[in-house]
What we know:
Elements: E1 5-8, H1 18-32, H2 39-45, H3 50-57, H4 63-80, H5 91-100, E2 104-108, H6 113-123, E3 131-133, H7 145-154, E4 161-165, H8 168-176, E5 180-184, H9 191-196, E6 201-203, H10 206-217
Parallel strand pairs: 1-2, 1-4, 2-3, 4-5, 5-6
Helix pairs in contact: 1-4, 3-4
Amino acid sequence: MAIKLVIFDWDGTLMDSAAKIVNCFNAATRDVGLPQRGAREVRQIIGLSLHDAFTTLIPRASRDQRNQLIESYRAHFSTLDSTTVPLFPGVIQYLREFYKQGYLLAVASGKSRRGLQKALNDTGTTSLFVTTRCADEAPSKPHPQMVLDILQDTGVSPREAIVVGDTVFDLQMAAAAKVDAVAVTYGVHDVDQLRQQQPLACVNSFPEVYEWINRQSAPSSAEVMNC
């Protein structure tokens, strides 16, 4: 069945924000007086809600400390940290191509609604997406609720949708919602981690995402490019 709906993760899939996220996580731990974590450790939890991310990284933090960490992280990400967060090469061009071709586009993000809306506004991409879901509107990935909500919003069946993400959390979320997934290898999780989740494909750039989806949607195509 042809793909009608493409559900994108945001950080690490559309936006190159890993360096900023690492910087802001460690700035928050420094502000609260807790041990910092290495970049690889922080990259492993990108995609989770802030609550789940800090719980995973700093399990012994008290509730008050965790709340302070979240507040500090948000302050650094929104105003204090100056690390640039560009969209990955080809994202604007090929999102517009998807849109022109009639695909329904959506976002399922570990960001808060406020954070995602700022990113959409800053990148001028708000109008390209028919619906979006965030971690403060549904359980954190890998729970499937964000995908299930998007399917309900759009009236698209799981067989007509695909999730595109860069973390195992994205792929597990898709599997739990009974939606196929494509992994991008340019984000935060290693290709070996992604392969273990058995996505339909592993692709190395955003233009390849566009090409792969179009091949699957072509009437004569039965190709699946396995990882």
